[in-house]
Amino acid sequence: MIVVFGSINLDLVARVATLPTPGATLHARGFATSPGGKGANQALAARRAGAEVALFGSTGRDDFAAAALTLIRASGIDVGGVHQHDASTGVALIHVDDAGENAITIVAGANAHATSASIPDEMLGASTTVLLQFETPASESLAVAKRAKARSARVVLNCAPARSLDPEWLSVIDVLIANAGEAAVIARPFTMSTDPAAFAETIASNYDIAAIVTLGAQGVVAATATARYALPALSVNATDTVGAGDAFSGVLAAALDRGDPLPVALVSATAAGALACTREGAQPALPFAADIANAARRLEDRLRVTPRR
Questions:
Q1: How wide is the angle at C-alpha 227 spanned by C-alphas 198 and 173, nearest 5°?
Q2: What's the rounded mean pLDDT across residues 87-100?
Q3: How far is CA 176 from CA 137, 158, 251, 273, 283, in A?
Q4: Which of 266, 7, 47 is nearest to 133 (CA)?
Q5: 189 partner at 20 to 30 Å CA-CA among 1, 143, 159, 169?
Q6: pTM given for the model
Q7: How many CB atoms are located within 10 Å of the residue 73 CB?
Q8: What tens digit of pLDDT does each residue of 186-203 get?
Q9: Which residues are paired to 283 by β-bridges?
Q10: How far is Cα 149 from Cα 155, in angstroms, rounded to an integer?
């Protein structure tokens, strides 16, 4: 079972030729709404990869709430832990350019009211993988991690959006996922190297955590106390990178939860992240298990594993 504590948004997406610059007024080529939020996205990614998933978070009592949960409900994810508040449902204002890159503004809304107390103790046992991000209050996410660790659950933290990391996190998580920019933000206060591979090795060595840094079109690097990993990206025709990181995190959590070793999980997650770039939107683009497995076969022989001494 995967327990996701995280954000639930409605994404408002404008397609533009180039991303906004200060003072500019852009004419969009298209507009769409779709369900989003890192918590909901990662929950759906894990579910589509075959995991049993329960989502905990908050929406408003407005018209956006139902739309934000459309695909989550249709997928069979347990939403009994999603509570409503008087604040507005969270919103992401997203610009996507012709190269598939994006610029995002988040309005937290009801996500700011999500609480650790919404998760029952019995759902945080040794058979549970807990997946967390930073679009809900950091103090509440850390409280979830502490409770989960105390009950022997596996704790996976996706450090997104980028923010400094409270040192307490490093004693209560088992897996850390960051992109290169997020890793650099984390590294500086600890005076670690901001080089992705060096960062992953330092985290793994000092804190006995599996540390993973995604590199977009350059693939992924990772480290544990005993090995280093490097994997190139799957070559795809990218149209929209909005959901790639969430696809990676959700599928990695699903793979670990079903007992796959980290190298196998890295291949599946990297394949999923690439596939998510081939369609527009965050949740609509998340791939299903069969497509992930087919894409992973194209990558599995390209993973480089180096023992650490």
A1: 75
A2: 91
A3: 18, 6, 14, 16, 22
A4: 7
A5: 143
A6: 0.94
A7: 13
A8: 999 988 999 999 999 999
A9: none
A10: 7
Residue corresponding to tokens 């670690």? 192
Domain assignments of the chain as residue spans, ordered by start: 2-8+37-89+110-307
How would residue 128 be classed by pLDDT, with cut points 50, 70 and 90? very high
Task: Indicate the length of the chain as a whole number.
Answer: 309
CA-based R_g, the chain, Å: 18
Neighbours of 17 (CB within 10 A): 11
pLDDT in tens, 36-47: 999 999 999 999
- Assigned CATH topology for domain 2-8+37-89+110-307: UDP-N-acetylmuramoyl-L-alanine:D-glutamate ligase (3.40.1190)
d(CA 31, CA 301): 40
Question: Do the Cβ atoms of 221 and 229 come closer than 8 Å?
Answer: yes
State which amino acid sits at residue 23: G
Phi-psi region of 43 (alpha: psi -120 to 50; beta: other; left: phi over 0): alpha
Mind telling me the catalytic residues? 246
Task: Report the distance separating Cα 40 and Cα 37, nearest Å.
Answer: 5
